[in-house]
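Backbones bend. Shown next:

***
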Amino acid sequence: MEIGLLLLRLTVGLTLAAHGAQKLFGWFGGPGLEATGQLFETLGFLPGRRQALMAGLAETGGGLLLTLGLLTPIAAAVICSVMLVAMAVHIRQGFFAQSGGYEYTVVLGVAALSSAFTGPGSLSLDAQLGSHFSGTFWGISALLVGVLGGAFSLSQRHRTPGQQGTSTHTLPS
């Protein structure tokens, strides 16, 4: 079980950290902060550069915390929040990622939240530091904080007449 939790944390955490690095630094073939900021503005997230910075930091920071198994419920809440926003952006394209849908963001968000319910396992910094962040309380807390964070971010979104609220561009989650 411990190896399974470690593999899950490494896969989801490093994937999210890499997506954040695409936004922030243009690494791994990503657009970088300026281009991501411009895209965010077309989606109604103003100012786009600041919103892209926040999304990139959330993905990178949340992903690295999850990878390390450090402050796991906080990592899960941050990831849940940013994936909820990404899901809202992609929702009109349907579920499947091949059509630009929200499938991928749901999987990453739920996988991160699962770690708040199960805990990061003994092969984590939380365990090494003697922190026992797991169980229903921590999972529900991470879910609630994530939903509130995502809802707040979405409430700040500006819509212009004729704006569809989705993008034909594929955003790194």
